[in-house]
Design brief:
This protein has 237 residues and is mainly alpha-helical. The protein folds into two domains: 84 residues, Arc Repressor Mutant, subunit A (Orthogonal Bundle), CATH 1.10.10.10; 94 residues, no CATH class. It contains nine helices and three strands. Strands 1-3-2 form a three-stranded antiparallel sheet. Strand 2 and strand 3 form a beta hairpin. The longest helix has 30 residues. The protein is globular.
Length: 237
């Protein structure tokens, strides 16, 4: 039976960091990377360190490609920074990628609404019912949009029509909807058939791949447009 003890070593992390991370949705490999980073830095009372991909592979059991992809996404989202090959966790959460802004805004609005109602004991039951009802409505709305996202992906690859009951792909759709919204997803799916196969662009054919490569795709689109403007070329989308 495992019996971890503080006297055998512990990692000091500010509560504020953990609270802010709770708002951020990351893939499993991204979370594993961050946990390893905490262990290799804060766990040794360091703010940064030289941490190779092979070290992360040994600590997590992930494939090297998954580790590299997780690192790229975390760097792009400014959750992790790298200077002179030294990696560190970015404690300035206000600089983290825009992916968490919508969550923060929604949370702040909900908190304001709740604060207006928490002054009397009589309101507690009403608050519980209202928040539960709102959560249920949001879940139902999300569930109704997932098939629409999968339907859009059928135009990218007909194999996606088999994913309506696939839990992994549905979970990816739910993540995409929560992070970006249906309109932004539609814009990316319109672009994907044109970028697939293009040099330096990620190949994306499923919801899971779009979830994992969203930041990479966005960065490459911006770079492509900037180069097109510089060379006075027409943008293909």
């Amino acid at each position: 039976m495992a019996s971890p003890q503080l006297q055998n070593g512990f990692t000091r992390i500010a509560n504020e960091i953990l609270e802010q991370l709770s708002f951020v949705q990351m893939s499993g490999s991204e979370w594993q990377f961050v946990m390893c980073l905490f262990r290799k830095t804060y766990g040794f009372n360091k703010s940064e360190d030289w941490i190779t991909g092979s070290q992360i592979v040994l600590m997590t059991g992930l494939k090297k490609e998954r580790v590299s992809e997780a690192k790229r996404r975390l760097l792009a989202r400014k959750i992790v920074t790298e200077k002179r090959n030294k990696i560190s966790f970015n404690k300035d959460y206000e600089k983290w990628a825009e992916l968490r802004k919508n969550v923060t805004v929604v949370t702040e609005k909900r908190n304001k609404m709740l604060r207006k109602s928490v002054n009397t004991k009589d309101n507690k039951e009403t608050i519980t019912k209202d928040t539960s009802r709102q959560g249920l409505q949001e879940k139902i709305f999300m569930e109704n949009q997932i098939p629409e996202v999968i339907k859009l992906f059928e135009s990218v690859d007909p194999k996606n029509k088999t994913y309506y009951g696939n839990k992994t792909q549905r979970s990816a759709c739910e993540f995409l909807l929560a992070e970006y919204g249906l309109d932004e997803i539609k814009k990316r799916i319109d672009v994907i058939p044109k970028t697939n196969g293009m040099q330096f662009f990620p190949n994306i054919t499923t919801p899971c791949q779009l979830r994992d490569k969203w930041v990479q795709l966005d960065n490459q689109i911006k770079r492509y447009k900037e180069e097109a403007i510089t060379k006075n070329n027409n943008v293909i989308w």
